[in-house]
Design goal:
Layout (H helix, E strand, L loop, with lengths): L1 E3 L3 E4 L6 H8 L2 H4 L11 H9 L8 E6 L6 E10 L5 E7 L8 H16 L4 E7 L3 H9 L3 E11 L4 E11 L12 E3 L4
Antiparallel strand pairs: 1-2, 1-9, 2-3, 3-4, 4-5, 6-8, 7-8
Helix pairs in contact: 1-3
Length: 188
């Protein structure tokens, strides 16, 4: 799947993206807030992530900041399965790009993909309790707290940590999450 927003391009990752992916994510402050990325994050981890075969209903996309030159890889957004089998929305943005609204912009495009292309009626998400900024992004995207906290494994921490759980109802027709997105949804 592909999407283009005002400032971003979302697309599947390709093998040649591995060096840029490694540079963008190789930060313990990012990896510790992800469930499956290990720390330390090695170049071969980027290669393995990009080579992972994905189900059509579980796309993972790299997030590129559009520039006057080549786009710059600044993060990732997508969907995966939680340990309980539920589909979960997740994302990360490179530290140098924090505070610029990129997570929310990429998230809006991904939520629209979930609604319009994947035809999902509900999305789950979560954030580790010690990462409240991620919770604020989820709220901006329309996710609502379930009021539950679950123990979740973080490969980056190599430990279990408490995670606040969120849900987003996609079945309503009154929520136009991303009117500014120009979506080009194609099978990857």
């Amino acid at each position: 799947m592909f999407a283009r927003t005002e400032r971003l391009l979302l697309r599947p990752g390709w093998a040649e993206d591995a060096p840029a992916l490694h540079r963008a994510i190789c930060d313990e402050g990012i990896v510790r807030n992800l469930a499956s990325a290990p720390w330390p994050y090695r170049p071969e981890d980027a290669i393995a992530f990009l080579a992972t075969e994905r189900q059509p209903q579980e796309p993972a996309m790299l997030v590129f900041r559009r520039t006057s030159a080549d786009p710059e890889l600044i993060g990732s957004v997508g969907f995966g399965r939680r340990p309980d089998g539920e589909l979960e929305f997740g994302y990360w943005i490179a530290r140098s790009q924090w505070g610029r609204g990129y997570a929310t912009e990429a998230g809006r495009a991904a939520v629209e993909m979930a609604r319009k292309s994947l035809r999902l009626t509900k999305l789950n998400a979560g954030h580790f309790v010690d990462n409240p900024a991620s919770g604020r992004v989820l709220q901006k995207l329309g996710f609502k707290s379930t009021g539950r906290t679950a123990s979740r494994y973080s490969a980056g921490r190599n430990a279990i940590a408490p995670c606040n759980l969120f849900e987003l109802d996609l079945s309503g027709t009154d929520a136009d999450v991303a009117p500014e997105c120009e979506l080009a949804m194609m099978a990857a």
